[in-house]
Amino acid sequence: MILLCLGLVVLAFAVSLPSVIVARRIGLKAGALDAAGVEGQVKAPSRKIPNTGGISIFLGIAFPMVFGLVVALLWNTTSDADTQGAVSDAISVHAAGMRQQIPMATALLLGLVSLHVLGLIDDRKPLGPKIKLFAMGVAALVLIWPPMGMYDSTRLLTLLDARAGGMWLSILITLVWFLVVTNAMNFMDNMDGLSGGVAAIASSCFLVAAILNGQWFIAMTLALMVGACLGFLVLNFPPAKIFMGDGGSLVLGFLLAFLTSRTTYIAPIEDGVTSASPWYAVLMPIVVLAVPLYDFVSVCIIRLRQGRSPFVGDLQHFSHRLVRRGLSRRGAVLVIYCLTLCTGISGILLTRANSTSAILIGMQVVVMLAILAIFESRARHTLDETDPLHPNYSKPA
Known about the structure:
Layout: H1 2-30, H2 54-74, H3 86-100, H4 102-124, H5 129-144, H6 161-164, H7 168-188, H8 194-212, H9 216-236, H10 246-262, H11 284-288, H12 290-305, H13 318-324, H14 329-350, H15 355-380
Helix pairs in contact: 1-2, 1-9, 2-3, 2-4, 2-9, 2-10, 4-5, 4-10, 5-7, 7-8, 7-10, 7-12, 8-9, 8-10, 8-14, 9-10, 13-14, 14-15
C-alpha cells in the first residue's frame, strides 16, 4: 500500500504539472494577473504574473480522488485471478473501505470545489474577509456536523462530549481549527514558493503518520496533496512564473484542516487493539503546523496593535520580516522550509515518544518559536520609525 501512495504522489504530480503550465498560459492570455486586493491592503510591487496556479493544485487533488472513488465503486473484488496483480490486489483489499468513505469524500469534494471557485472569484475581484470566512465556516460545518448523519462527523476532542453535555464543544473546537488552519495557509501565500512548499512538507509528515497508523484513505489523500503541490512548485518556486492565489491556498488550508482532524495519532498494536498511546500524540498537528500558526498569530497581533483588521493583507508576515533582517526572498523561503521540516519531524516523533522524550520535543519546538519571537522583538528596535513593524510606529493620519 505504501507503493500505491507513492504512485498517487506521482499521479498527482503528473496531473498538476501540465495543468499549471496550461493555467499559466490561460492566465496570461486572459489577463488574470495578481489583483490589487481589498481596500487598505498592502501588497508587494505588482508583477505581470498570473495567479491561476490554484487550478493545477485543485485538479491534481480532485481529479485522481474522483477517479479513485469511481474505481472503488465499480471495482469487482471477485475478478479472475488472471487479472490480479500487485496494484489490483491492493485495490481489492481496500475497495470496500473506500466505498464506505464515498459520502464523506463527496462532501469534502463539494467543500473544496466551493472554496476553489470562491478563491478564483476573489483572485479576480476581492470579496473581503467576511464572505470568505462565512464560506469556510459553512464548508467546515457540513463535515463537522453532517446533515442527517449521512457520514461520520469530523470532530476533534470528542472525548469532551460527555463532560460538556453534548457535541457543542467539540464542534466549536473543530470549527475554530478549520478556520485557523485554512487562514494560516492562506496567510502563507505571501512569497514565491512559500505556501506550496510548506504545504508539501507538512503533508509529507502527516502522510508518514497516516501510513504508520494504517489510515489509508487519509494517506492516499495526503499523497495526492504532496504530488499536486510539487507539480505546482515547478513554476512557483522563486522566481515564480505563476501564483496559486486564493483558488489554491484555500483548498490547501481546508484540506489540511480536514485531514488533520481525521487522522488518528494513536498507534495500534500488532494485534489490532489500540495501544495506550499518550494523550500528547494528538498535539502532532499543532507541532507540524507550528510555523504557519506562528505566522498567523504573530501577524494578527501586529495588525491588531496597529488598529487594522487582521484579515487585510500587508507585508508584515514572517517571511517579510526575515527579508527585513537581511535575507533574500529565496533565502527566507528556504529558512521557513527548514523550520517546517524540523517541526514536522518533531511532530512525527511525538506520536512515538515516551513522556520524557515528548517533553524534550515540546520544549524544542517552544524554544525555537520563542527564540524567533525574541529575535524579532529585539530586531524591531533597529528599524526606522516609519516602518510599520517598529514599536513606535504610528499610522499616518
